[in-house]
Design brief:
By secondary structure, the protein is an alpha+beta fold. It folds into three domains: 191 residues; 97 residues, Signal transduction histidine kinase, dimerisation/phosphotransfer (DHp) domain (Helix Hairpins); 166 residues, Heat Shock Protein 90 (2-Layer Sandwich), CATH 3.30.565. Helices cover 67% and strands 10% of the residues. It has twelve helices and eight strands. The strands form two sheets. The chain has a six-stranded mixed beta sheet with strand order 2-4-5-7-6-8. Strands 1-3 form a two-stranded antiparallel ribbon. Helix 3 runs antiparallel to helix 4. The structure holds adenosine-5'-triphosphate and magnesium ion.
Length: 502
């Protein structure tokens, strides 16, 4: 996961939790508040109902009209009493319709209903007694009802409702406290989660950074020369890309370092040999100048001429040597001009120069690839040197066979085989060094194979040989691998089973 995504998650996850928690607590608070408000509204309704019942029964209404009817016997009081008492009864029934009535409420309502029903039932008795001509005090005695339980029931109801109401109001108060508690808890939980996530993510990031720091400091201290280092695995984000790039950089550095080491060794050996090899013609020059001096003293013109000629010869040798040296050293500095090279055309171009040879030359090119990717001039130089050697170091009838194939691991593999004098195994290494020869036969400074080897190496390839004295010599070389990768040696070796590689 990308670092930016990780950082975004670190802030987004706690924020989302905080938002969800906030919404959830608002929902809970709202729900509780609604239920409390509904309870309070119901209590208010009940209170109104109780006071209405009280009103229907009280002064000027219900029981008051009932008493007046007993005292005065007028129909108007009867009607008044009946209508108010029935209304009161209806209100009591309405109260009963409320859900979840408490036992106290039910008992108090039953008492009220019994009393009101008792009054209603007595109205007809009053009417009957008045018709019978009974006096008011007698009727009153007959229909007397004890109001005390109803009065106390009403008191109980009112008190009960007041207690309920204050309990609900207290709930609102408690709710305000819980809201505060909820918000603080959600905030703390989100904070803990945020800390946990950011700690996890940052510890992973820090781990990756520390590994990269260790890795880069190893490189800076030069530990990158250890070959068996495997790629570092840090995390699945941009750090891994950085780690991979650093690892590749390290691999490249290692390769360059190895090459530099080799080049350094070559240079040391080369400068030592050059100095050593230049000494011989110089010594000869010195000897000849002394001989020239002697000839002048002795006025020997013939000797003078001979030694002067020798001085010229030695100087020419030195010139050849120095120009070969220059051409060899320049090779390392020249850049490769990689192109599609028509191999058969190159072979044709080289063989056209063999027309002047006194030897009978038979050249066979077998299965060579049509095109390869290489520096054309330098590739020509490789084949030219190898073919010239085959001709130079052979009898009058030379048979040369060139074969080639494309390697699966990239690049190409060539073999140049001849039926010439062959090379002793002890000279296999030596002949690739500059100015080293295995024989005095034929002219040459001994730079040809050193140049061939160098060109092959700068093309990322290798050269090696097989040979048997007076029978054959086979030079194998790979070429065409430019990305700091050596060709798969197994493949090359399987293809040729070399005796020796340079
Ligand atoms: N095909 C071959 N058969 C036998 N000997 C060989 C063959 N090729 C090279 N040699 C030996 O390897 C030596 C080095 O060869 P190299 O081409 O480097 O130098 P050279 O041919 O002597 O001189 P130059 O190539 O500089 O003119 C030769 O002197 C010769 O002894
Ligand atoms: Mg040669």
């Amino acid at each position: 996961m990308k670092i930016t995504k990780k950082l975004l998650l670190t802030s987004l996850i706690p924020l989302t939790i905080l938002a969800i928690g906030g919404l959830f607590s608002i929902f809970i608070v709202k729900k509780t508040q609604d239920s409390i408000m509904r309870s309070i509204a119901q209590i208010n309704e009940k209170q109104t109902l109780i006071s209405d019942i009280y009103n229907e029964l009280g002064y000027g209404n219900g029981i008051h009209a009932f008493k007046n009817y007993v005292l005065r016997g007028q129909d108007v009081y009867k009607k008044n009493a009946a209508s108010h008492l029935i209304k009161a009864n209806q209100m009591i029934d309405k109260y009963f319709t409320f859900k979840n009535l408490s036992l106290d409420e039910k008992q108090a309502l039953e008492i009220l209903r019994n009393t009101v029903t008792a009054y209603i039932s007595k109205i007809d008795i009053i009417n009957q007694k008045i018709t019978e001509g009974k006096i008011a005090t007698e009727i009153d005695k007959l229909v007397k009802i004890d109001d005390a339980p109803a009065v106390s029931a009403q008191g109980v109801l009112q008190k009960y409702l007041l207690t309920e109401k204050s309990a609900e109001l207290k709930k609102i108060d408690d709710l305000n406290h819980s809201v505060f508690f909820y918000i603080i808890s959600i905030y703390l939980i989100s904070l803990i989660i945020a800390l946990f996530i950011s700690q996890k993510i940052s510890s992973k990031l820090i781990q990756s950074i520390n590994r990269l720091i260790r890795f880069s400091s190893d490189i800076s201290k030069g530990f990158w020369t250890e070959k068996n280092n495997s790629p570092i695995v840090v995390s699945d984000d941009e750090f891994q890309t950085l780690a991979d790039q650093m690892f590749n950089m390290k691999k490249d550095l290692l390769l360059i370092f190895e090459r530099l080491k080799q080049t350094n060794q070559d240079l040391e050996q080369f400068s030592f040999m050059s100095a050593h090899d230049l000494k011989t013609p110089l010594k000869n020059l010195l000897s000849y100048t002394e001989l020239i001096n002697d000839s002048i003293d002795q006025k020997d013109c013939d000797a003078l001429e001979t030694f002067t000629q020798e001085v010229r010869n030695e100087a020419e040798k030195m010139m050849d040597y120095i120009s070969d040296l220059l051409s060899f050293t320049r090779l390392g500095a020249e850049s490769l001009n990689i192109d599609d090279v028509d191999v058969k055309a190159v072979i044709r171009e080289i063989t056209s120069t063999f027309n002047h040879s006194t030897k009978e030359i038979e050249l066979i090119a077998l299965g060579v690839p049509d095109f390869i990717r290489a520096d054309r001039l330098k590739f020509t130089r490789i084949l030219q040197n190898l073919l010239e050697n085959s001709i130079k170091y052979s009898n009058d009838h030379v048979r040369i066979e060139i074969t080639g194939k494309t390697l699966d691991s990239g690049g190409w593999l060539f073999t140049v085989e001849d039926n010439g004098k062959g090379i002793r195994e002890r000279d296999f290494e030596k002949i690739f060094l500059p100015f080293r020869r295995a024989t005095d036969q034929g002219e040459g400074t001994g730079i040809g194979l050193a140049i061939v080897k160098k060109i092959i190496e700068i093309h990322g390839g290798k050269i090696w040989l097989e040979s048997k004295e007076n029978t054959f010599t086979k030079f194998h070389f790979s070429i065409g691998v430019y990305k700091n990768i050596l060709p798969d040696e197994k493949e090359v070796n399987n293809a040729t089973s070399p005796q020796h590689s340079a």
